[in-house]
Amino acid sequence: MTSGIEGKVVAITGASSGIGEATALLLAERGAKVVLAARRSDRIEALAARIAGAGGEAVAVVTDVKRRADLSRLIATARERYGRLDVLVSNAGISPISALDDLRVEDWEAMVDVNIKGVLYGIAEALPVFREQGSGHFVHTLSTAGLVIVPTMAVYAGTKNAVRAISEGLRQEAGETLRVTTVSPGFIRTELAGSITDPDARNGIQTRMDKIAISPDAIARAIAFAIEQPAGVDVGEIVVRPTAQS
Q1: Would you give the DSSP letter of residue 134?
Q2: Residues classed as catalytic
Q3: Which UniProt keywords apply (predicted)?
Q4: Strands across the sheet containing 237-240
Q5: Segment 48-104, tens digit of pLDDT
Q6: pTM of this structure
């Protein structure tokens, strides 16, 4: 991969809002060709139109990361439209947090399906493409919840730390031409709290976000920093949190 961002083909899951949307806008502004993936077709189609209206290149692909076939279609669309895939940003995630005593098993399963299996499906589809090309870059969105474990976040933190371990294993297996980056955001102004089914947990997180959360643009800049490095430079892990976050 050449240095810089211009001309690179970047697929982004969870692109309909928050960090994914901010990342798509920033990378497109810097000359990347972005492939937008999310379940909400209206959101990503509007975002693609916005990027095109500003002179950028974007295509929207309705994607549910719980389905491997959807990830396969996403990667295939990138290659059909632009001839290659340089970066896969696996950003889709949910956080229906709750105390373990609440036994919200369906929420646990949903987090495993989206936060872990969704990333694995992306790896399964993109890794052979990157091997064939001789270059490629995985970027995985984690969370500071995986760095400091607190009540109600055990399963969510577990999913993020599973991806942390998977990412490190992938990095070690990747060889000299593939790159792997993890980005751990702290409190960011996103819609993530909306996926919390427990009312008390949701209100607590939303209150905290309203007080100290920073713009998703901060994470977009971190992702751009990792992508724009020369091919021989692998930015392994980035943590971005509000200065007010303990």
Answers
A1: T
A2: 156
A3: Oxidoreductase
A4: 57-62, 33-38, 9-13, 87-90, 136-141, 178-185, 237-240
A5: 999 999 999 999 999 999 999 999 999 999 999 999 999 999 999 999 999 999 999
A6: 0.94
